[in-house]
Design brief:
By secondary structure, the chain is an alpha/beta fold. It contains ten helices and 16 strands. Helices cover 29% and strands 27% of the residues.
Length: 339
């Protein structure tokens, strides 16, 4: 089958950074689904995994952690799906990725594709949806009831990116007032269009800008960009007994003492945790993707697809990686159709 992968970890400008491949079609076992891939999406994690390093692979490494497609075959222990079902999912970081014609995924982390979306529109969503959902409703513990969130505010740092684009919509569905950070008119308008109530700059102290807009401290903060860079401003802007969640790893320690007097909480979100450690609650990702599909089909949430490339091949994936590396993308980049 066709796939795109790498043997060497190179700068994306190098033709060998991602190459077209022919690899063996996998066979499902256990609770795996064999999915015929319809569309894929590219995320910052793809860029991080592919980034130049002094390492080579003896067998090709296939990236890609956003897929929408059709179940072709199921493993003997599958109970949630059958051949012919349309699914969308992010997959697992410790298994081959989905940039291939066929892909294996544990059914417990796959959801039923929203019926109202095509494969490209659906492929934009899984990784960012799981990340945003887990960050908001599990790590930060935000209730999903609008009545419980009356008067509560969420600050999203990096609101126009892939995760931010879903987080805004989920937060508005839950009844929160959303403050998003953005640095350009294009990203500001995108975030506003998704429902953000206020836009502030992430180059200036957050609290001063929030006060200028008539707001006080943020009850919740979701950091999707440069945790260390924004740490002091987050600590200043968080409400007493508030909660901060970040998805961006740090290269130096964070001073948690800045949160002590406010009895504030800091937590991480990594959407691959459940599949990486095979946690007993893995199926929660299946459940939340299904619930998100319901919200999409009910017109509460919309796809975050902004750029569509065809076909799925190494040249277009190199182009998508280069776009991600600019740090200026809004929404999601999707590729569909193998040649």
């Amino acid at each position: 089958m066709k796939a795109v992968g790498l043997y060497k970890y190179l700068d994306i400008s190098q033709p060998e950074s991602l190459i077209d491949l022919e690899i063996e079609k996998p066979v499902p076992a256990g609770r795996d689904l064999l999915v015929k891939v319809g569309a894929i999406s590219v995320n910052p994690v793809d860029v991080k995994v592919r980034a130049p390093k002094a390492k080579t692979e003896s067998s090709p490494k296939v990236l890609g952690w956003d897929v929408a497609g059709i179940v072709e075959q199921t493993g003997p222990d599958c109970t949630l799906f059958k051949p012919g079902d349309e699914v969308y999912y992010a997959g697992a970081i410790d298994r081959p990725g989905g940039n291939s014609e066929y892909h294996l995924v544990d059914e417990r982390i796959a959801g039923s594709k929203p019926a109202s979306l095509d494969f490209a529109q659906a492929a934009a969503l899984p990784l960012t949806t799981i990340t945003a959902w887990e960050a908001l409703f599990e790590r930060l513990g935000i209730p999903m009831s609008k009545e419980d969130n009356t008067g509560k505010t969420l600050l999203i740092i990096g609101a126009a990116g892939g995760v931010g684009s879903i987080a805004i919509q989920l937060a508005k569905y839950a009844g929160l007032t959303v403050i998003g950070t953005a640095s350009r008119s294009e990203s500001s308008e995108w975030a506003k269009g998704l429902g953000a109530d206020y836009i502030i700059s992430h180059y200036e102290p957050f609290l001063a800008q929030m006060k200028a807009a008539g707001l006080s401290y943020a009850d919740y903060i979701l950091c999707l960009n440069a945790t260390v860079q924004h740490w002091g401003h987050m600590a200043e802007a968080i409400a007493p007994q508030g909660k901060i969640c970040s998805i961006v790893e740090t290269e130096e320690p964070l001073d948690l003492n800045l949160l002590k007097n406010k009895s504030a909480t800091f937590t991480w979100e990594f959407m691959f945790t459940r599949s990486l450690y095979q946690t007993p609650d893995m199926i929660k990702q299946h459940e939340l993707l299904n619930e998100n599909a319901r919200l999409i089909d009910s017109r509460v949430i919309r796809t975050t697809l902004t750029d569509l490339l065809e076909p799925i091949n190494a040249a277009n994936l190199r182009k998508a990686h280069a776009m991600i590396e600019t740090g200026r993308t809004v929404g999601k980049i999707v590729l569909e159709h193998f040649e």
